[in-house]
Amino acid sequence: MKPLIGITLGDPAGIGPEIVLKALAERRVQETLVPLLFGDRVVIEEAMAQTGLVRPLRRLHKPAENGAAGDELPYFDTGSLEGPVEMGRVDGSCGRAAFAAIRTAIEWARAGWIDALATAPINKASLQQGGVPFIDHSAMLAALTESPKAMTLFVVGRLRIFFLTKHIPLGRVSAVLTIPGVVEGLVESDRGLQQLRLPRRRIALAALNPHASDGGLFGDEEMRILAPAVEEACSLGLEVCGPVPADSVFHQCSQGEYDAVLSLYHDQGHIAAKTLDFHRTVSFTLGLPFLRTTPDHGTAFAIAGTNQANPLSMIEALLAAAEYCRRRGQNIS
After folding, report:
1. How far is residue 172's CA from residue 310's CA, in Å, rounded to a whole number?
2. Strands 282-286, 292-295: parallel, antiparallel or unpaired by DSSP?
């Protein structure tokens, strides 16, 4: 059997519903998985009208009703919105609707009623305006699954990037680096690669300063924090090297020299992945009771409702979730 992948629609005012329907129209996706949408019926219908990708809908009320006949698209209506929304605008009701869909999908994933979760983009400002107590998907997933060590992994081709820190100002990165913190990041990265069933787990630690500080000429974080952390991680049995200059480590990983890179801050890794292939970069959340994938981009309010959104990253996110299920050996014929 094909894996059942739960799919949240993202912010109703963004491009999420559009790219979900476009992705589900792809033959590769249809041949690989069974979708189950989480969101508001009115949002799905609006996206169908916008894209012309009209399919009969089948509303599910409980897991036992899983499965759809023919071209039917199964969905679970989270019932948050009373009508259509204004596209491309920050709206608290959209933030609440997005959160309701994610919360419900997490409940289904934790119960084992879906095999993996793929999420469309949400908007931080809409979440905040709607009174949602989380800033992003990562915070929601970690809290609602009680997984404080969940980690983000970007995958594009052979390049895999973990992130030691994420949404903090660049000027604070150096101040938050500690040997125990870096070691923990390396350990959790290794654990994440184990979750993906990789046969080899060679991890490179990206340097902070130009040329990995060139012997202390451009900072001392490499000698004072990063190199000792690598040494300690190796003593724990991990296959780790570095710190490797950030201007070369991502290319080296993409060529197979490493199996993953631990990036020290948000843009260090994001720039590398999105420059390599913006539309095919997929974000994984590892360390949860289930796998979650998502496109690497946002809600793109500027083009929301215009039918111009590129669905490639959503397609890749769905295929990646299905591939993980295949590797794990669950519900695959």
Report:
1. 34
2. antiparallel
In this structure, are residues 259 and 249 in contact, taking their beta carbons and an 8 Å threshold? no
Residue 210 near residue 287, CB atoms below 8 Å:
no
Domain that residue 327 falls in? 1-150+288-333
Question: What would the pLDDT profile of 59-93 be if each residue is shown by its tens digit?
Answer: 998 776 665 567 899 999 998 998 889 999 999 99
Query: Does one domain contain both 314 and 255?
Result: no
Stated pTM of the model: 0.86
Is residue 142 located within the same domain as residue 155? no
Quick one: 144 and 164 in the same domain?
A: no
Q: For residues 299 and 15, give the distance between their C-alpha atoms in angstroms, rounded to a whole number.
A: 5
* Total Cβ atoms within 10 A of residue 220: 15
Same domain, 175 and 204: yes
What six digits make up the tokens of 162? 């973990």
Structure-token pair, residue 30:
């249809």
